Every structure is written in structure tokens, then in C-alpha cells.
Amino acid sequence: MAVTVDIKALLEAGVHFGHKTSRWHPKMAPYIHSKRQESHIIDLVKTVEGLEVALPFITKTVASGKQVLFVGTKKQAKDIVKAAAEKVNQPFVTERWIGGMLTNVATMNTQMKKLRDLETRMDSGDLEKRYSKLEVQRFQEEIDELNGKYGGIKTLSGKLGAVIVLDVLTDANAVKEAKTLGVPVVAVVDTNADPSVIDYVIPGNDDAIKGLQLLLDYFVAAVAEGAGSVKKADVEEEK
Q1: What percent of the chain has pLDDT over 70?
Q2: For 64, 86, 109, 111, which has the most beta carbons within 10 A of its beta carbon?
Q3: Opening angle at CA 171, ends 70 and 31, nearest 5
């Protein structure tokens, strides 16, 4: 059953509030409804249309066995993005985007292996047996630092199916790397950003937490539906 989008909920969450008219990007013109007190108002009909195309794509992507990367490094969005991704067991980036996270596979694999090895040795007690308390503390600090940088993508494996971005200006590098690899980008695009570089444009306010949470809820529902299809297929194969 496809995820249903409620335009009234979008309105109540303030998804329609764009930026000041002086900061607009001309390519967002098709997605703008009107102007109000020197600010643009986003056409929520276009937002619904964008979601009704993007959500089935996300579901289909996850159902095919591919992962979806959630990206939101803006301060006010970090916690809700992490919570959304963890809810559906998908990778995420909520701290600074480190150059090459997607494109420099060799370096990323090295860092991931280092992190996993240190965590395994810490959990097994191997480090505690071999080193002093001070040295073990330093290992833990290194683990914490690596987790801060790469913890959200530890589970990233195989070909990435899509990247979901909540602010295309703040996380322009994530969009750029995804485009370099040919990975489709689903993104919330406010009136001050260029929608032409995004595969699945969701015109909307990229600042209001209530609006971002609602959009994340839709993305999570789409992922969950796709994951449910995978589990159903696995059960049928076992019969």
C-alpha cells in the first residue's frame, strides 16, 4: 500500500514557507505559489506531486535490496535525521560531510575496517588485557572520534540506491558525490536552491523542524514499506 501524502498536514507543518524573495533561485519559479510579506510561498500541490513520485521510488529501491542514505548535517536537523534513519536501519550522515564519503571507496573502507576492528577488540576485552587503563581510554577516544565521523555509515554496503538530503545547500557535497556516482538524489529544495541538479525534487521549507519531521516521516514510511516487501519475499522463498 503506497504512502499517502496529506496536503493539509504539510500546510500545518509550515512546509510552504519559502525564503525571502531577494534570496530566491529563478529555477524554483515553477514551484512557487505566491509572495507574502517579502517571502515566497511554496506551492504545496507541487510538494505533494514530488512526494508522490519520490516515495514509490524509495520503496522500490529498498525493496530491490539497496540502501538509502539519509543526509542532514544542519544543526537543527541532526537529531531527527539520525532517529529517522535508525528507525528503519538505514545509513546516515548527520555530522560534517567528509569529502570522498561516497567517491573515495578505498579510504572509507580503511576507516570502516579500523573502526570495526577497534570496537570488536574493545567489546571482547582484548584491548583491556593488552594495554594500560590510560591506553584503553585513548583507544576509546579514538573509537568515539571515528564513530562521530563515520558511525552512521558503518552499515553501508553494496551499491547505494538513493541519497535523501534535507538541505541541498548545506549538504551540496553530498549531492555532488551522489551525482558523480549516478546515485539518485531525493531532496527537500527550498526557494533559494537550484532544483535542476536534483533527481526527485520535494519543494519545501528546509528550516522548520516540524516540516522536516513530517517529510522524514513520509520517507521513513516509504523505506519501511520497501523493507516489508523484502521480508515478505524472503518468507515466500522459505516456503
Answers
A1: 95
A2: 111
A3: 90
